[in-house]
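Quick log. Single chain, no ligands specified.
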Amino acid sequence: MPIPSNSPAIEIAPVNDRDAWRALLVLAGPSALEQGWGHGEAHRRHHGQAVDRLVFSADSGPCAAVQAFRRPVLGIGRLSRIVRGPVWIGEPDTDTRRAVLGAIRARYKAGWRQVLLWMPERADGMEARAAMHAAGLRRVVTGYSSVWLDLAPEESALRAGLDGNWRNALNTAERAGISVAPCREGPAINRQIAAYDDFRRAHRFIGPSGALIRALIENADPREEALVLAATQGGREIAGIVLLRHGAAATYHAGWTSEEGRRLNAHNLLLWQGALELRKAGTGWLDLGGVDAAAPGVARFKLGVGGAFFTLSGTWI
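-> predicted structure:
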């Protein structure tokens, strides 16, 4: 679908430098993990997908950036995927946003042999849906939901913002004598990944594989290193989480717990300590990593942190 003639002129340029890409994400603020450099490199190496990173500029400068994944299909076509992009820089007006969306659509869905699966980073609503329809796309999957936690407030304000039951569980964990420490060396990180994989298989839930988590950690920028935290009591590891930084934001990516960890609310303590560590390192926002009504217990846990719940406009084709 052609871009309307009254749309602002948009310049598109590739970004091949990790520092330049990180700078764009920092400007964007609460960007998604799927748009981070390390996520792109992990999928390129782990799944053999080609990765495009593009910056879109209008008269006022950069207004958006997108990381897209490409792979051939049956040797005659191409499947492109964009997950939670583009990231918006500043506050582009409606015409500029529509011009960027149209430019992305034109680049990745130019012919009948080119398929684009696209989950844009826009809250669901009439405006977001109208923009995607204007780009010639139709929705095929309903929107993804999660929670953004703003880490700018002081620690006391963050604690006051916790749901009462969540805060009580945190108090219980703090009184239980649980030790929380970062895993910095390979053996400690591998032990956490193995425990997570065992937990995922035992509880039969869909989540990233341990191999993918390892690839994400290995491809993280040193300034965006993964924060892997382990909870220990009585010399035994009873729970753990993986938080991944990307630009000015971070994402809760994976976690596991033992029966003892669940009984002592170790996950509350892990997430609380992780949020404080991220805040200390200058991270501005934490994405709680998805809220699904099919897992009400996990949803209540994440909503209890007191962040802003959001639902995106869905996946479009």
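The radius of gyration is 20 Å.
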